[in-house]
Amino acid sequence: MKRVTGLLAVIFTLIIALVGCGTSNSANGSSQSDKKVTVTMGFWGAAEDLKIYTKAANEISKEYPNITLKVKQYPSSDQFWNNLPGEIAAGVAPDFIKISNEGAYEYINKGLFTPLDDKLLASVKVDMKSFNPNGVKIWNVDGKQYGLPFNQMPAMFFINTDMWKKAGLGDYPKTWDEVTAAAKKLKTNDVYGICLNIQPLHITNVIKSYGGNWGYGKTINSPENIHGLQKFLDMYKDGLAVTPKSLGYGWDGEVFANGKAAMTTGGNWYKGYLKDANPNLKYAVVPIPKGTVNASTMISDGYVVLKDTKHKKEALQAAYYLSNENVQKAFMKLGVNPSIPSLSAQYYKENPEFKEIEKVQKYGTDFEYPKETKKFSDELVKQLEDTILGGTKSSAKKILDSIQKEF
């Protein structure tokens, strides 16, 4: 997966030491509404993203004359999270940021983000009903809203159609058993049936399809999770699956782009990558296959207000402005699925290769990682790599029982 969360444990140690050091002008950290305030938004992304945000920043004063919006771009999520603690300490951190929900729970639990309570939302006249309910739910933790959903992108399953046809296969797979059967026919001396990256997003999609979830750390070794993870392990045991690391690649998209696997789990970010990496590659996109249930992760970028900003109200005003139709339409052209329901429907017309994924909007859910997300992710990946690449021969039950004891 070409999305870096970079959840470094040392960051949280520093963040905890720093949270609460800021000061605010009122209970909501808001200044007087008639006073001109400069608000900074931080994000990581491409040059095209920056163009859209810069244009919006130049136009925001038409709706909010009291706000001057500055946009701060970080080259990567690693640099974003590595720099943030020092910026908090120096009093120069952004007032609000755009981040992915994958891994956000740990930051919420550490008290880094401002809960968007009814009073704060009402002060800015935020209409939460204007967003897709599923996106709103993803950013609601323990009954508190922490983010305005900007987009939502269900996980996807990619198939190399040329390889599929060459193998004489018919309908695309709807279940993992059908994936396994197809992978046996697709595997050759040079090509694996499927790329399954040993990374939490991909693992989570498999366990969810068997009715499982991490339960924020409470249900790590549930029977459903064990069933799903064993299916993951069995595809490696049978020689059908490959991980990018074993082929010398950095992520699953590279494996797929280079024709080393006929199928892979991924997301809509594949579109832009494949356009450059292998423009001649023909592929089909279907929902994550069913194990025992239809289930999938839902990746959602959201705007969150930092806890120590002195301008909570103005930061939320700016964030809400950046959720408007014009901004979301601009991002839709870049392949991003908007959180506004009417635009989301239009998105699938403009991105027809993802049409089959539209149904997943109704049932995609959050990752539900434990509070100590980095610790969990590191241990899950380590144990799976030891088993798949290192030959420890652990079962899914043994792995998840062991991890559950840590949480």
UniProtKB/TrEMBL annotation:
InterPro entries with a match to the protein in the record: Bact_solute-bd_prot1, SBP
Any Pfam family matching the protein: SBP_bac_1
Gene3D superfamilies: Periplasmic binding protein-like II (3.40.190.10)
Name under which the protein is recorded: Sugar ABC transporter substrate-binding protein
